[in-house]
Amino acid sequence: MYPLRRNRRLRTSESMRSLVRETILSPNDFIVPLFVVEGKGVKEEIASMPNYYRLSLDLLEKEAKELWKLGLKSVLLFVKVDDKLKDNTGKEALNPDGLMQRAIKTVKNAVPEMLVMTDVALDPFSAYGHDGIVSEGLILNDDSSAVLAEMSLSHAQAGADVIAPSDMMDGRIFEIRTLLEDEGFHNTGIMAYSAKYASAFYGPFRDALDSAPVDLKNIPKDKKTYQMDFANREEAIRETIMDIEEGADIVMVKPGLCYLDIVREIKNEVNIPVAVYQVSGEYSMLKAAAEKGWLDHDAVMLEQITAIKRAGASMIASYFAKDVVKIIS
Ligand SMILES: NCc1[nH]cc(CCC(=O)O)c1CC(=O)O
Ligand SMILES: [Mg+2]
């Protein structure tokens, strides 16, 4: 074909490149994860996540308004609860006046149109740092799912738009969907963490919430009996299809960058939106390299996020959301 076809012709100027660009980022692409703590006027930087903070409810309200102004229209809430409130039953997770329930109402009151998504898993409430109930060295599947369904209902009652179960128990999407339907929450959506891998990239998040598995006898030190083995690909398809059959409205792949093959494969396989979570470790890795002057922060950030979208992400949960939107708009 050469020289009739010179591929470089379409790269000759930024005007030309922008004309033929296949993947364009927009504020509509993002879900903003937010960490919430008790107190007033609290804005604590997370040690392993530079420039990312835990916010008390009054500052959460301010943040929601700021995000809305930037065009960011969905948030994903996580709470850091006091050790005294943690147990092995998830009792505090069901408290109608718990921190999560108040956080939902705070955002909804501040910006009624903001889409409020909530994390559903027991780890922030677990004395053992596990996503479910622990018994004799095991994470109980069905007992945990039952509590997660109650927790989801409690979030829906507080006003959540989308429930986001991040626990990886089998069958929990069905349990949650069924309970929400029974209780009349027909329009409360479910974003299922479907292909969630047992990843070492979650470290900084566990610092943020103080939610890492504890080092005690007979307590599993990792989450490998419920989160997926990162060596597996076909299993991700199985997990995702089951969640769709159980009633998920959106499915998710997590983490992001190391799993873009999985994102593309799932995107080709299913016909509902696929979310990708660019997780805490991915954020911290770039922050650290940029602090050392080894990588150009903004350039690498845009490259990473664009790659996630190019791979097939319909939406991206990212700690970089604000930074990206400030650059692109
Ligand atoms: N169910 C907990 C949960 N929900 C989201 C993340 C990780 C998010 C991140 O690293 O940014 C985790 C951590 C874990 O599974 O241990
Ligand atoms: Mg599953």
Give the averaged pLDDT, no decimals: 98
Ligand kinds:
the ligand NCc1[nH]cc(CCC(=O)O)c1CC(=O)O, magnesium ion
Q: Give the SSE string.
A: HEEEHEHEEEHEHEHHEHEHHEH
Number of strands: 12
Describe this entry's structure for a reader.
It is globular and about 70 Å long. The chain has a single domain (30-328), classed as Alpha-Beta Barrel (TIM Barrel), CATH 3.20.20.70. The chain is an alpha/beta fold. The longest helix has 18 residues, at 141-158. The chain contains 11 helices and 12 strands. Helix 2 (57-69) runs parallel beside helix 3 (99-110). Helix 8 links the parallel strand 10 and strand 11. It is 38% helix and 19% strand. It starts with 13 loop residues before the first helix and ends with a helix. The structure holds ligand PBG and magnesium ion. The site of the ligand NCc1[nH]cc(CCC(=O)O)c1CC(=O)O has 12 residues, from helix 6. Magnesium ion (MG) is lined by residues 168, 170, 239, 242-243.
Defining traits:
single chain; 329 residues; alpha/beta; TIM Barrel; 8-stranded parallel barrel; 11 helices; 38% helix; globular; binds the ligand NCc1[nH]cc(CCC(=O)O)c1CC(=O)O; binds magnesium ion; heme biosynthesis; porphobilinogen synthase activity; Delta-aminolevulinic acid dehydratase; metal-binding
